[in-house]
Design a protein that fits this description.
single chain; about 130 residues; mainly alpha; 6 helices; about 70% helix
Length: about 130
């Protein structure tokens, strides 16, 4: 007979083996039901993972200073404002075919310095924040 920590691990392994045995029996009796359970559990874990990644990322990226690489969607998300409203206030184009442009791309198309576009966006942020209740 084993003594000490090895005995504890052996008991846990036997208990796990019993659970797996029951699971296999259940799968043999109800393969569609168990498959649906595994698929739905996997999907739930995927969506939970995505949610947690976004939660962790955005909790550290609130009110980020506006930079040339940002899109209006990113700016809006960071400042908790509607990006389309910011587009209107700053006089910037809306995304075409779902492809948002960076502030640098917008400045290049207009033939103006990026700092000018960033100043417009910052003014729009201040204006939108002032309009909030």
């Amino acid at each position: 007979m084993l003594a000490g920590p090895s005995a504890c691990y052996a008991q846990e392994f036997r208990a796990l083996g019993g659970i797996m045995q029951r699971f296999v029996q259940l799968f043999r009796r109800h393969p569609k039901l168990v498959s649906a359970l595994l698929l739905s559990s996997t999907l739930a874990l995927v969506f939970l993972g995505r949610f947690l990644v976004q939660l962790i990322y955005w909790s550290g990226h609130q009110n980020e200073p506006v930079q040339a690489w940002m899109t209006m969607g990113y700016v809006g998300h960071s400042w908790d404002l509607n990006p389309r409203r910011l587009d209107e206030l700053a006089g910037l184009p809306k995304p075409v075919n779902g492809h948002p442009k960076t502030l640098a791309e917008i400045a290049k198309e207009r033939g103006v310095p990026v700092s000018e576009v960033i100043a417009q966006v910052e003014a729009a942020i201040a204006q939108a924040k002032a309009m909030e209740p």
